[in-house]
Amino acid sequence: MADIRRTIIAAVARNGTIGREGDMPWRLSSDLKRFKTLTLGKPVVMGRRTYDSIGKPLPGRPNVVISRQAAIDHSDISMAHSLAEALEAAERLALQTGAGEICIIGGGQIYAQAIDLADRMYITHVEADLDGDAFFPAIDPGTWQAGEVVAVPAGERDSYPTRFVVYERRRA
């Protein structure tokens, strides 16, 4: 299943913060629209805490939730007990639906495990240092090549300006 791209999608503050008390420490309407565009029709992989913070399956995409204990009894959720199991399930779903990509959408523990397995990252760099309790791993420039960069000023429904960067894994 090597032809299915593994993509990480995250919004990250300058100091690495991605979450606080089960929520995001910002409001970024423009980023949520981008997130929806990037993920619609593609399997999304997330940890149980990320699922709990969203509160329901994301519509229009197969949802794979990783949890060591709890099962979520919902017809639109596939459960997995590890990242490896979740990636296998998501890749099967991508093949069934014709999606060429799976999207890994959080949280911090999942990103830390997935960063070495991903091919591409769509990172929204939030132009602020924010307090939090969930963090994104450091992006190693020896491993990741920043490509397209788009500066996004804060819109009327955004807490902060952002920079949207597409990173590709460097090939050896």
Automatic annotation (TrEMBL):
Every DHFR domain range: 5-169
One of the record's GO molecular function terms: NADP+ binding
Q: List the catalysed reactions.
A: (6S)-5,6,7,8-tetrahydrofolate + NADP(+) = 7,8-dihydrofolate + NADPH + H(+)
Q: What is its EC number?
A: 1.5.1.3
| Pathway per the UniProt entry | Cofactor biosynthesis; tetrahydrofolate biosynthesis; 5,6,7,8-tetrahydrofolate from 7,8-dihydrofolate: step 1/1
Per UniProt, which keywords does this protein have? NADP, One-carbon metabolism, Oxidoreductase
Top-tier EC class: oxidoreductase
Q: Which family does it belong to?
A: Belongs to the dihydrofolate reductase family.
For this protein, the record's CDD domains field holds: DHFR
Q: What does this chain do?
A: Key enzyme in folate metabolism. Catalyzes an essential reaction for de novo glycine and purine synthesis, and for DNA precursor synthesis.
Question: Which Gene3D superfamilies does the entry link to?
Answer: Dihydrofolate Reductase, subunit A
| Species, as recorded | Rhizobium etli (strain ATCC 51251 / DSM 11541 / JCM 21823 / NBRC 15573 / CFN 42)
Q: What is the protein name given in its UniProt record?
A: Dihydrofolate reductase
GO terms, biological process? dihydrofolate metabolic process; folic acid metabolic process; one-carbon metabolic process; tetrahydrofolate biosynthetic process
Give Gene Ontology CC terms. Answer: cytosol
